[in-house]
Amino acid sequence: MPEESDISEYHLRSKKRCELYERGINPYPAHTKRTHSIAEALDGFTAMSSGKIVIALSGRVRSMRTHGGSTFAHIEDGMGVIQVYFKKDSMESGAYEFLHAFVGIGDFIEVEGVLFLTKTNEKTLLADRLRVLSKTLRPLPEKWKGLIDKEGRYRKRYLDLISNKDVRELFQKRTFFINTMRNFLVERGYMEVEVPVLEHIPGGADALPFITRHNTLDINLYLRISLELHLKRLIVGGFDKVFELGKVFRNEGMSTQHLQEFTMMECYEAYQDYTYYMQFVEDMYTEIILKTFGSLRVVYKNGLLDFSPKWPRKDYQELFHEHTGIDLSLCREKDELVHAAKKLGTLEKVDFSLGRGRIIDLIYKRLVRPKLIGPLFLINHPVEISPLAKRRETDQFTTERFQVIIDGSEVGNGFSELNDPVDQKQRFEEQMKLREAGDKEAHMLDEDYIEALEHGMPPTAGFGLGIDRLFAIASNQDSVRDVVLFPIMRQK
Predict the structure, then answer these.
(1) What is the four-CA torsion angle of 294, 300, 304, 305, rounded to 10 degrees?
(2) What single-letter DSSP state applies at residue 483?
(3) Which of 30, 82, 112, 439 has its CA 20 to 30 A from that of 461?
(4) For 192-250, what is each residue's pLDDT tens digit?
(5) What's the chain's Rg over C-alpha atoms?
(6) Is residue 491 part of a domain?
(7) How many separate domains does the chain show?
(8) From CA 337, how far away is CA 247, in angstroms rounded?
(9) Do 122 and 170 lie in a common domain?
(10) Which helix (H) or strand (E) holds 219?
(11) Is the dihedral of CA 358, 429, 426, 266 positive or negative?
């Protein structure tokens, strides 16, 4: 609930708003006479101040202090902050009194005057005219308690941005991060595309989808959980290099690493395999990290993460054996795996009624992945947990797949794409059996995608990553919510 002082302030500001209208003054005009941004005024200060050039600036009032007939304020726009000096004797008639009667901290104003340098060498605008651009009704959060409460910051991100310069800079850096990724792909000949958000069959990942309704067609549709299957249809259609940056939606649990709505980048290149793409991904990550943060060694938690090449490549089955004692090559059947897993005595919460692949994945996430620091490539995953990846020619039980692992988290997934339509259909059918047995995250059978493969897809490599998670790690944030402007929250 708002504090009593905030309610009183709201009523006082509302009263002043009404008084402005009664005076025939619109406190929310559509146009301004601004001639420069604050950054432009500061950058061109020497020339404009020496020439006594009259300029108009606009921004939000962040501070005000009065000394007799003089008032100093700071105003801020999206580009910078500047001091404004209001002197009663030098302002147009009634302007100084108007300032104190109707302008408060948080209001947006327009000021006109000339630039000068104060005795303390602060660049300042001497104002002779002002105008209210937006009369605020609620006070700004001065030492706002919600800035300590993360949930409050997420719910009212606009106040977080107003109050915390570091947060604004973080999201500016995120935009640069994403643009650098996009430029990396475009410079290498990739075409950016857009594929459907609403799908008849969700595919491309192990995830529970959201369901929505198309009233005109009178059908249920799914919000996409991945970009993969439609992007590979484009490879079938003759585009050799494609990518998309877009939102995906997964109806899964919330954690510091998971959101139901997040930004995914997926890219696909024809006539390449997973060994090529590992080098491609390493080059992409290192370029993005270096350009965004200025170094390949970034602060993370209480130490450093070093993204410098070459990243080690670790075999999935070897690491699984090392950390669990279970040799997957000797546990080809589910019963054999369950028997070996139960001997560990640390997997009470694992649902052994699930399929072999899901059990492997749960054990891996519980006992193996948390111990991997990286950055590293985890390679050659079992077929059962890689239904869209091509089998290795030297071992039909494993796939040409890789994951980027950083501090016990998956931060990227790629493989040589399965382009045998018969093998792909059989794997979908195995996934459907798992769904029927209760595994809600198993893949659905997409007949249209199978038909596309039957028209022929060349050898192709693909890769996808959740941008929020990678940026959160690289910028040393505690949670992916810290790098998303408006994360989904429970309604109050």
Answers:
(1) -80
(2) G
(3) 439
(4) 999 999 999 999 998 999 999 999 999 999 999 999 999 999 999 999 999 999 999 99
(5) 29
(6) no
(7) 2
(8) 37
(9) no
(10) strand 219-223
(11) negative
